[in-house]
Amino acid sequence: MTTTWTPASPGPGSAPGAGPGRPRFGLGLFGPRRGRHELAPEEYEALALPVGDDGVVIGTDPHGAPAVLGVARPTPFDAVLIGGAWTAQVIALRTVGTGARVAVETGRRGLWTPLAQAANGGQQCVTLHDVGRVPPQGPSVHAPVLVMRDCGARPPRGRAVTAPWQSVLTLLPYLGPDAPRLLGGADLVGVQRVSPEEAQQLGSLLGLPQTDVEALPALPETVTLWCARRSWTYVDVRATDTETQLLGAPRRMD
User: Residue 55: which of 108, 94, 14, 105 has the closest Cα?
Assistant: First the structure.
């Protein structure tokens, strides 16, 4: 289909029988003559608007570009973060900023209470639940949910599972005996600083190059290696002043 623009017909102020070269009373002189505004089908692509993934900006990649984590999805999404609660809390805060709700399953209520109080400005954006006691969240396209599981190195099987518009992020402080099962079923895995022995194990589980295996034990506090289906990238959180004021300085362990 071509898009065609045609001039409007003469208005009531035009003189009857006005033709080229004669003034149109009330409308001024004739303007410049131009061809019709048309696009051929092969030119439509030039009008395309580039749109990238939407979601939670969890930091910047090595090139300084925003790294985005899409937690609000129409399909189930399961992620595992081997790292500290500080990074998980930054992700939770930024998830709330996108309009989603966060349900935290944790045995460390004292650690998460200040965040929940700060985020719940008149609305229950962040709710805290004991381990194994997360009620149905009722996720929908208008009310997506992120379930944050902070249940130690051996998290029990939870009642809140991945579903359309409900993603689950499991926080592991270090590699435990259940790590191979959890990582094997995850769509995305984040790894912060770990011991050299854990790095070797993760290299085998995730198929990491040796250079990344050697880099994991020396990662800075704010850097996470995110891995998905044989692709990976380093992301630096770069917390805002407000996040630092609420959560404190970046730290790998709590």
Answer: 94
Instruction: Supply the pTM of this predicted model.
Output: 0.78
pLDDT at 26 over 80: no
- Measured CA to CA, the distance from residue 225 to residue 192 in angstroms comes to 6
- Domain 56-247 fold is Rossmann fold (3.40.50)
Confidence of residue 208 (pLDDT cuts 50, 70, 90): very high
Q: Name beta bridge partners: 101.
A: 145
- Judge contact between 53 and 18, C-beta under 8 A: no
Burial class (CB in 10 A: 0-12, 13-18, 19+), 201: middle
- The per-residue pLDDT for 39 is 56
CB 85 within 8 A of CB 150: yes
What is the average pLDDT score of the chain?
84
Cα–Cα distance for residue pair 22/12, rounded to 1 Å? 16
pLDDT-derived band at 17 (thresholds 50, 70, 90) equals very low
- Strand, helix or coil at 113? helix
> 202: which residues sit within 8 A by CB, 6+ positions away?
82, 175, 191, 194, 208, 213, 216
